[in-house]
Task: inverse folding
């Protein structure tokens, strides 16, 4: 397989199998974060139940998420970051994070793979949680008010890139779902997400790749 291509997995029946879809070289749309508004945490005081999950915040549909740890900045001219946008699920939305990539150099760099660098479709090391771009008009197959996927998400096998100008940042929101391997709804516990950031640019120092990740706690 071409080393610049990434093979994504589809979860089906609790087992991970390769998704074999024709891919192509594409360019992901750039989003500099100017239109990403932070959704407020639902402060509704209604009580909710989730199979006896006593850690669920009042008025939400699951445990609250916090950033437990982040890796050190990689030795490439990109500084990754992650923050909480919606710390717990609501009836209408799963928990949400936002990832940001900042180009610390003076030259523009191309970043890839364009989805994975923002942790889109990246699954936690446990296999029970995954991060997906907001669903938009086409909802993902998930249990209502539970945010556990009921079937696998097929991802096209392609390698996307986008450019970040010197000194600029690029941000995207990602929603947190339980996979088909999870036992019940979004489970409490500690989870780690990790991805590879690859760069190309006019400056030789802009070329390279690095692995970066973070850990979250659900309680």
Result:
């Amino acid at each position: 397989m071409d080393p610049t291509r990434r093979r994504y997995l589809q979860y089906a029946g609790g087992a991970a199998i390769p998704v074999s879809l024709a891919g192509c070289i594409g360019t992901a749309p750039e989003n500099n974060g100017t239109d990403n508004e932070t959704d407020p945490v639902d402060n509704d005081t209604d009580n909710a139940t989730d199979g006896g999950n006593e850690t669920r915040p009042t008025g939400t549909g699951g445990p609250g998420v916090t950033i437990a740890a982040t890796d050190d900045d990689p030795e490439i001219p990109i500084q990754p970051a992650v923050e909480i946008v919606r710390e717990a699920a609501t009836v209408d939305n799963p928990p949400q994070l936002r990832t940001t990539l900042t180009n610390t150099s003076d030259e523009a760099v191309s970043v890839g793979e364009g989805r994975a660098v923002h942790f889109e479709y990246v699954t936690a090391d446990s296999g029970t949680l995954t991060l997906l771009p907001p669903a938009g008009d086409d909802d993902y197959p998930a249990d209502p008010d539970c945010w556990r996927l009921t079937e696998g998400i097929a991802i096209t096998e392609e390698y996307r890139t986008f450019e970040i100008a010197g000194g600029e940042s690029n941000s995207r929101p990602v929603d947190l779902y339980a996979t088909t391997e999870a036992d019940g709804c979004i489970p409490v516990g500690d989870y780690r997400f990790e991805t590879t950031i690859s760069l190309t640019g006019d400056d030789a120092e802009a070329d390279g790749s690095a692995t970066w990740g973070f850990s979250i706690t659900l309680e």
The domain at 9-28+52-218 is CATH 2.60.40.10 (Immunoglobulin-like). Residues 1-57 have pLDDT under 50 and may be disordered. Residues 55 and 171 are 30 Å apart (CA to CA).
